[in-house]
Amino acid sequence: LASVETATVAITLWADGVVSSTSSLSITETDTSSPYFTGALQLCSGCGSSTGTLSLPPLARNRTVCTAYTDASQLVNVCNATCDDVGHCTTACTTTTRQAFSCLTVSMRGVVTIASWSGSAAILRVTVDDFDRDTNSSVETVWATAAYSSSSVSLALVETGGSTGVFTGQVAQQRASGSCPSGSLCVGVGSSAQVSVAYSDPRPPATITATRTVVCDGVLTLPTSFIPGNNIVVTVTDCDLDSDSSSQQSTTVTFTAPGTSGGSTQSESVTLWETSVGGGLAAAFTGLIATSTNMSMATNGDGILWVQASAASGSTVTMSYTDVLPSSSASSVQRTASTRACTSPVLSAWQTINGVTLVAVFDSSGPGLYVQLQSGAANQDWTQADKTVVQARGGTGGDLENLQLVETGADTGIFTGRVGVDRSDVAIVGDGEISPIPLGSSLTLNYTGCPGTAMVMFTASSVDRGSFAGMPAVPAALGDGTTLKITVVDWDLNTDSAHTETYSGLVEVDLSGPDPDVETLSLVEAGISSSVFTGVLSVSRDSPAGAHDSTLQVEGCTGYTSCNITVTYTDAIFGALVWAAPVARQGILSMSSTNGAAAGAGWFLAGEPLRLSAVVGDAGVTPQVRLTGAGGTTLLVQLVATAAGSGIYNATVATFASGRYRSVAAVAAAAAGGQASLEVGNAQQVVATYVDPFPVATPSTASLYARFPGALSIVPDPLLRGQLASGVTVTIFVPDANVNASAIDSLVVAETWYYRAGSNSSGNVITNTVAVNGSNVSLTWAACASTAGLGLGGNVSALTLFENDVNSGVFTGTLLPNAAGWGTAAAAANTVTGMEVCYSEGGAAAAWVAPRLQRWVAEDAVGPTVGPVRGGDAVLFTVRDIDLDKFWGEAEAIQVTVMSSRMLEGSETITLREATLSSLAIPNLAGVFTGAIRTISSDEVGPAGDGLLHLSAGDLVTAFYNEATDRLGASKLRNGSGLASAAGGRANLTVSRLLLWENAPLCVTVADSDLAGFLPPTPTTTPAPINASSNSSANATTNATANATRSTNATNATTVPATTAVASAPYLPPAAAAVMLTRAGHSPVLVNLTWGAVAGQFQGCVATSTGALPPGAVGLDFAQAGQVITVSYADNDAFGPATALVVVSSKGTLAVSPPVIGYSRPLRVIVTDADLNRNRSRRESTTVAVTTSWTGSDAKLTLALFESGVDSSDFTGVLGTVLAGTPSPRDCGLDAAVSGGGCLTPLAVGPAVHVREGDLITITYRDVAVGTAAVEPANDETFVVRVGVRGQVSATACASAANFWSAAQCGSVLYGGTPLQLGVTDADLDWGPAPANGTARTVTVRVTTSKDEEEETVTLAETAAGSGSFTGLLDTCMGPLFCAPVLNVSADACRACRPEVEGLSNDGIMTVRPGDELTVHYADAWPPEERVATVLVSRVGQMQLVPSNLAAPGDPIQVTITDADLSRLPGGAAGSSFSYVVATSLYGQAGGGGAGARKQPASGRGCGAAGGRAG
Asked: Which end of the chain, N or C, is less surrounded by CB atoms within 10 Å?
């Protein structure tokens, strides 16, 4: 306190927001005992900063000086928290000094600026820049004084913006002469005349002055262009030229222009005179220079400039003026300006079509015309691209368009644009298109260039672009004898409106291929002034091509050969018009067989398979071949492509003759594949025909002759046991075996005897009685030995037959049963049951077997057996006559006569057919013949031969069979009878759908108990599919009825399938039922049904199509919506036919959106059903049924849908939803509040339902069909919509790896560096179809932080399908030491984690700090709302003691703990308790305990008290 002390303050200068310089200042105590210290700081501009001195930047506008003083005696504590690896945090405090700060703004010295003058000095413009004067955000004003000599004026300067600190203003000036008007400044002009402006700056206090000499920069004015031969008028404005205000002043300018030779220049000087005496500060001087297009005037000094008028951009004339007193220079300045000669503009337009450019004509149906203008007058600005306007008019509607053209570049003088044209559109002014502009009308473009010059015009006429019409379909189907018609439409050819016209040589037809051809056509107008011209060429496929012979030869266009036709019409304006297409190629058909034709012969053996092959080059053709066989029988064969796109189609057809010569394997395979075999006759020509649809049903044929194998016979026939000992004669006629015409030939056949099983212990060895060419020669012929091993005994041997006579071809041999084992041949004959002989003309390797005979030893016939007999049922008859089973592989037939005991009932003769094709293989079916006759339960009688018996209970039915040969060789009449019982039951017919959707199969089931006793055979091959035969001939109905008569209820002509029955089961014939499908306007279709799983039940399906069926397919074609199909079954009992009606219906579809909805939101319902569109000229309606799971009064309603258009078939409606508990619109109506009731204005307009969260709304559309009221519940379309439920989102943090918290403490406090568990529960997310790829459903949430803008998007996966619960994890990090990711986060991400900076968004890891709050966002779609959950990052709590020290003994110590984490842990509600520990330093005294209570659940604060005592 005894001396004067000093201290130091730090100085910092901020200039325009940044630190500019720093310094320091020593301050001194004012006296020895004063607390005040003072010092002075020297401010300087541009000097160096040192102690006590601070350098100010001169250009900065906003400058602030700040001082900082550090008080070492005032100590403060600064505390920082430090956390270890497991989250334990400690607070470390350090002591530091207190600082005091003070800042001042450094004033700115104002800057005054006077603007220079150009041409005129009539206005004085002043600017003041003084940032200090901007004291607020409003626009402010300052003042300055302008003076010249004795004249002065006050000038108000207004701020340019609210906070700019820049002020501007202006005042009028005039020449000083006499008294000066108020508010103006009177000044002189010239180098000695100066005007000054003074501004008083309050901070720092000073008067700022600026001066400027009153001189002007001269301004030159002249037009941008001029007309050659006219004068160019120019003006110079320069205030300092008016040196004498009492007289007219003048000045001189120079004009230059290009000379007559390259590089030469013309020059003329012209005097400009002041426009008025005493022009003063706005003095203007004007004059002119004459121009001429006469080259002789190109003489300097004559006052005339020669200019070129034909130059592309015209001659350029430049004016020069010497400015003696410029404002910016002490010396004179040369100023120049230029103008150009305005040349005649050039206007053109053109149109480009298919590479042809049209100039004087255009196609009004094509694209618009490009317009180009070359004009110097329009080139106003030589520094940039200009725009100009060209006028377009034309057509018949008076259309007028102003077209804007744009210069192609700066100073090019070329402008381009486009005008549209349309032949038929209406005229709309301003649309940039001239319309309508029909053929023959014109388009005119107008442009006026330089002022005073004539208008330039461009005109073009509308022409027609020729076109083809009605050209052939692709590929061009050019059949033999047809014509090729070419039609050209071209209005330009119609030059004579009074006559039809003809043109030659305009059309050329070119054919490319193996035989090219070229023809030229003449075009003849179709009618007077029609503009349609046609030409015709004949087409031939029979002769070679000849050019220009008026016939197009296409005979080379066959098979897979490539042929193309090109038609070229030469349009006089547009050039060649080309139409090209491939030519349909005639298919090439070939036919071959295994043996004959394969070797090049034109024949095949009956029984061989035929191979058909067609080469068809045209796409989209599936060839069918028609084969003609014995008796004119035909077979339609579908050929199959060998490979996709190969063009080669093949098929194999099995053949047979007279039922005896056939390839069993081939016929069976054909039958199994649903394909019939072809019956052929000996020496008959089999013709295959393929009718190629392209070109024009052109046929291709192939043929082979059929030949029979040898005719085989066995004598005696039948075999009588008593005659066997004398031997059996085998004879065969084989012309091909007659090799030597002059000698006896021989051949070998295979023969086998069959004996009663077990009667010969020696193995049934057989020996040939004729020992020629080696006896007992064994043949390994699989086809004849196929019966070996079936328990019947027998081996195969060879028998050699010798020709009866030279060149006869008839071969004979004798065969006896083997006597070995029996002692004698007669004894052996007693054990024989039958024999078999076969011969292969094609050899052992042949795939077919022919001929083959079998003979049984004659036995007595058994039967006929009759029954059961019941009116309305088919009656089965069975006869067994083994010796009639003669031919292997053929189902033979016998006849029986059936009579009834009813008086006058006519007798019937019916055919019984053999039960199997190969009886030798199944002895118990050998010679078994079955057949049936239809009956009617009736008291009437019928005529003989009608195929029916009328029966009632008690009638006796008797069958008579005339056996030709019994076991003794005698004939005998056998009979059997059956008594009729009660009539059968009614048949039941059902269909799959009463309303049948288009293109859906129609399935029929018939249950007829009358047929239950008939069982189907068990086939050894796969049965053919159900078939339907379509009768498309004129006698379709008659044929169909006949088919039904044959096929229904086991008819009297039932055909046994070509399959082998199980040996142990007695054979019963098939009892297949058939139904007839009839439609108005269509041929009936017969559908054969097959046996069902239940006895007496029959089933079948038939395809339907809205269009034509595929080739070879059968069913109902063109079965379109509204058709009624009658299905009938001819039940033969007294009840009559069973019928059902089926209506074809268009399948309706139902669409509802959205599938999940919020209450008070509408649903859009759409039904699409062509059946509902009954009237195509008006909008119609339909309804859907609406039900909800809410049981209120409106749980069910009918919603009306209305057609979106008169012919749309789409019906729409809107269904409202109202939150349950609010009034229903249907109860309240649309009125406002009802007095006294609680009915408010409805929340939905129109139909609505009450809903709650989670309710289901079911919408059902009952599909209907045109023309019927029938319904089909199976066709109903339903859609279920869910009312959305509120989703929930959760964010959970659990214990760290160090188990800092227990598992029970999982809550909303996150330990930094551990993962955050995220969850969403929302049942709406499980509504709708599952993901197509079978993956689990997912949902995304966003996680944000209170720290900064970092954001993470996390995908949650469903915990289990249908659970609606989704979970996922998000890793967090709090620095490299607090980062232990469990997901796929790289170690680099942990190392890069810095809590003090913002982390990278969407990188899978969230950067956190202690105390941060993380928020999880889930966008719930229904109800639409964002759901959130928060979690707090744990931070160190704080504890406060009161008193903080010097506690008096006995006083309580108040403890306050502040820890936000506590309130987020489980049990963190207000009033809950926590514990703490108190310890003392008194030796031997134990520490005490305390308890606290939470104040508020979210405050994180709690308090308590502990007692104390002395010590």
From this structure: N
Question: Is-cis flag, bond preceding 1329, omega within 30?
Answer: no
How far are the Cα atoms of 17, 468, 794, 825, 1227 from residue 820, in angstroms, in the given order?
A: 136, 93, 13, 8, 109
State the DSSP string of 396-448: TTTEEEEEEEEESSTT--EEEEEEEE-SSSPP-TTSSEE----TT-EEEEEEE
**Biggest distance spanned by C-alpha atoms of the chain:** 179
SS (H, E, C) 635-673: EEEECEECCCCCCEEEEEECEEECCCEECHHHHHHHHHC
Element spanning 910, H or E: strand 908-914
Q: Write the CA distances from 1192 to 241, 929, 1189, 1219, 1237, integer angstroms.
A: 101, 74, 9, 12, 19
Within 789-878, where are the H helices?
825-829
Could you tell me which residues are beta bridge partners of residue 1477? 1489
- Separation of alpha carbons 998 and 1120, rounded Å: 6
The pair of structure tokens assigned to 1109 is 């069926």
Closest CA to 1311 of 1438, 1408, 1395: 1408
**Paired tokens of 434:** 């001239």
**Token duo for residue 1057:** 């399938």
Q: Token pair for residue 1487?
A: 């520490």
Beta bridge partners of 581: 565
Q: What does the alpha-carbon distance between residue 244 and residue 274 come to, in Å, rounded to a whole number?
A: 11
**Dihedral sign computed on CA atoms, order 1111, 1117, 1118, 1119:** negative
Among 517, 527, 530, residue whose Cα is nearest residue 567: 517
> Of 1095, 1074, 1096, which Cα lies nearest the Cα of 1085?
1074
Strand order, beta sheet including 603-605 = 603-605, 698-707, 685-692, 624-628, 634-638
Q: How many CB atoms lie within 10 A of CB 1095?
A: 14
- At residue 817, what are phi and psi to the nearest 5 degrees? -65, 150
Pick from 448, 488, 496: which is nearest to 465 by CA?
488
- Alpha-carbon span 1016 to 1095, nearest angstrom: 10
Nearest Cα neighbor of 841 from 946, 767, 733 is 733
Tokens of 32: 């020895």
Contacts of 175 (CB under 8 A, 6+ apart): 186, 187, 188, 189, 242, 245, 278, 280, 281
- So what's the pLDDT on residue 573? 83
What's at 1003, amino acid-wise?
C
Q: Which helix (H) or strand (E) holds 1045?
A: helix 1036-1047
- Taking Cα atoms as reference points, which of 589, 587, 588, 609 lies closest to residue 597? 609
**CA-based nearest residue to 787, from 963, 919, 967:** 919
- Tens digit of pLDDT for each residue in 188-198? 888 888 999 99
Q: Could you tell me the two tokens for 1446?
A: 């010097």
Q: What is the mean pLDDT of each run of 10 residues along the chain (1511 residues)?
A: 88 85 90 88 79 80 85 66 62 71 85 92 93 87 92 92 91 82 87 92 91 93 87 92 84 91 86 87 91 86 83 77 87 90 85 84 85 84 88 86 91 90 83 86 86 75 86 78 88 87 91 88 89 89 75 82 89 87 85 59 73 82 83 83 84 71 52 68 81 74 77 79 80 72 79 56 34 27 35 50 82 72 62 72 41 78 85 84 76 88 88 69 69 84 87 88 90 87 75 85 84 50 30 31 30 28 31 77 84 80 87 81 86 71 87 78 87 83 87 72 88 83 44 39 61 86 76 84 88 59 63 88 82 82 93 92 90 83 74 83 89 91 86 82 76 80 64 68 54 48 50 30
Alpha carbon of 164 to those of 132, 157, 167: distances in Å?
Answer: 10, 13, 8
pLDDT digits (tens, 9 = 90+) for 332-377: 999 999 888 887 788 899 988 877 888 888 888 878 889 999 887 7
Task: Report the amino acid identity of residue 1008.
Answer: D
C-alpha 393/C-alpha 437 separation (Å) is 10
